[in-house]
Amino acid sequence: xxxxxxxxxxxxxxxxxxxxxxxxxxxxxxxxxxxxxxxxxxxxxxxxxxxxxxxxxxxxxxxxxxxxxxxxxxxxxxxxxxxxxxxxxxxxxxxxxxxxxxxxxxxxxxxxxxxxxxxxxxxxxxxxxxxxxxxxxxxxxxxxxxxxxxxxxxxxxxxxxxxxxxxxxxxxxxxxxxxxxxxxxxxxxxxxxxxxxxxxxxxxxxxxxxxxxxxxxxxxxxxxxxxxxxxxxxxxxxxxxxxxxxxxxxxxxxxxxxxxxxxxxxxxxxxxxxxxxxxxxxxxxxxxxxxxxxxxxxxxxxxxxxxxxxxxxxxxxxxxxxxxxxxxx
Length: 329
Hints:
It is a single chain. The chain has helices spanning about 5-15, 50-55, 85-90, 125-130, 165, 205, 240, 280, 315-320. The protein is mostly loops. The chain has a domain at about 140-175.
């Protein structure tokens, strides 16, 4: 090959290697700020900013205040700016996005996206998951009649005994054959509820104050480094300790288990439930921000003390509490 041809080939190759490969710029909608950096480990900036190398290890800034949601900057680096970011449009503390509540019968039946989160009426969790909203086919599914009528009465996608409102409710008897939360079921060597955990290896038994055949981890045992109740979880990794009001367990970063994380308008643990809509808040003895229905007195007074639409032992805060015994049969 002549020298001129080699020069031409080398020039083409050099130009090719100087180009950036095409990348997929698709942003995953559910990517939310979790305090992580924008560095994906590849050396490239996740949002393709020119200053990738300079900023790669700088933690993202939360985008959940009026100031940050109106500055035309993608502060948390998730690809969404200001009110296009769910951290802004779905935060109850942010008002610049024209939001507001969408959690009453009137607002959930007006054909409008009142809170500006992209979901209207019953397509919005603020409506479909609110115990006070009835226009979304919701309401209770927590009695023998409702748990045996083959209807998804509360509109959560689960019918009768497939719904925890039935299967884990001590006042419902029609689902009794699937429950593993009493001395008989927790000591018969059988996985009665079909969750692959048998007897005291099942948290329905080991973390149930009404079950006496299983050893429960007491607050005094929650720092000894031992799995005292033999359920596979030690100290503060065990719900017996983590949620007990008398046990000293720190609320880890990224968790949702103290007054600060349960009252900030954010889904800190990324499980789809925010603040008091998350059982890690509403069933937690350390959390007072969610109201109170978590003592024997409150769970036996005929009142809906925490205002969540459920009274006494029909409320998981009572019936699934680790320390309330008023709901024991």
